Amino acid sequence: MEAWVVATGLIFLYLLATIGIGAVANRRMSGDLEDFLLYGRQAKFVVLYLTVCATYHSAFAFLGSGGFFYTHGIGFWAAGAWTVLVGAITYVLGSRIWALGKNFGYITPADMLADFYESDAVRVVTALVSVVFTILYIQVQAQGLGYILSVASGDRISFEVGTLILLVVAAGYLIAGGLRAVYWTDVVQGAWMYIAVWIGALVLAHELFGGPFELWRRVAAERPDLLTLPGPRGFFTPGMWLGMVIVLSFGIVFQPHIIIRYYMAASARTIKWLGATTPIYLMTLFIPAALVGLGGALVMPEIAVPDTIFPEMLFAYAPAWLTGLILAGATAAAMSTLDSILHSNMTVLTRDVYQRYLAPDRPEGHYILVGRVIVVALLAIGYALSVGTFEFLVVLVTLSGAGALQLMPAMLGVCFPTRRLTTRAGVLAGIAAGLGALYVTLVVSPHPLGMHGGVWGLLVNFAVTIGVSRFTAPPSDETVERIHGAVERFVYEGDPA
Amino acid sequence: MRPTRSHYIPRTRTGRIAVGAFLGLFAFTQPPLVFALANRQEPWVLGVPFLYAYLFVLYIALIGVLVWARRREL
Question: Is residue A57 within 8 Å of residue A193, measured between CB atoms?
């Protein structure tokens, strides 16, 4: 049987499996809004673990990380630092977010910030930042999916058709089963992508070099420039290293699809174990990526698009069944992030915009229906962005990675009580200044003084938030006592919320 | 009740050890320390270059701190 038939067949088998899971999830749905949006806040450890890991690691981790090792060398091993930091943030901050969500019924990041800062403006700004800076990820993941199917079929399925098929499948099971379907498919996807990337990398290392350790020795002999910092193109400077660690840890954690996962944990114990152990999965996924990227730099040194190094090597050197299995894993990596972002944007738009301002006090079934319509609209936008070419996208994609990071001072103000309070005016001014600084330091004059633009934006944001908060009115004593009191009881008095 | 003490400073001995150990180890994975101490291939450790092994050991130690904190019910 031809390789493309096996590869494409395995991807379609995988898609059928996800559709089946969505159908079962649909039968288990209770018709309750919290069940549709938050899985009824009952996610236990294994499900939460795999959904967080599968959501965090996208098509970028599966394809892009190999490309980064290929181009810039060992410097991308800094990825281990930001994944460990994600674990620590989940442990310390995620557990507080969970406790507040449990206490006060929050569903979106904007719910929490608007409640503490007593401001509709904060709600709208948070919702906008949440949606605008993640909606572009839909486009990035959809393009990855279209590419994978196109490559697997040897261009027999066009990029446009491949993108559409995979977007429709992801949106279909989300519409059918809500977050329950996303969770269950994430469990399959999280396990599949991890196993696939490890098997693929080890098989290639053995086929081409006689094993991983021989691969490392060959890299040292033939491309020693890949094994030291800042790498062959001088990319991993100290400022860029530090910046990527901050942006790709805090910046991802503050995106709505991750915050929503914190809300839905079944208990504080679950979320703290999640924080302590997620880095094991997240960090070790980059070990095989290093083998692929560095090995690829030796055997395919002239490849046009470095991000394609993994599938290119598979098609050239691996058996067809393995290539199909692994490309299905790549599909899983992209879909697990795509469905989560679709879901979080649907939740934010339904809860923070439609339910709050356009049609309050409707039955829960009405909001579930609206949520499903919003998913279809997001699907259409995602598809249009994926197959079109818009110049402004270059700017927006550049901005998107560091955009959610600008919510950090506001989040810390809620979750970490101190004597000096952050204020509504401080938070709004800080986000505006941070986004402005981000535009200048990422787009107008990228990475001044060798420091990642996201860090410049965050520094400006913190300075403005703290400065303005000193001279403006804090939230009312009643609200501060209610929310900071709940954090105090949770952290120091053993209140299980 | 409104908290009067900052949540940025750990209040228990276990908390101080966990925060100190995590931040101390993490500093070794970041500039300038990682560039000054580990930016080299030699000596190779268990078949991999020094920089790779150095960071891997630190990442495992950091995860160890998180697991230790959880086991101490922090």
Answer: yes
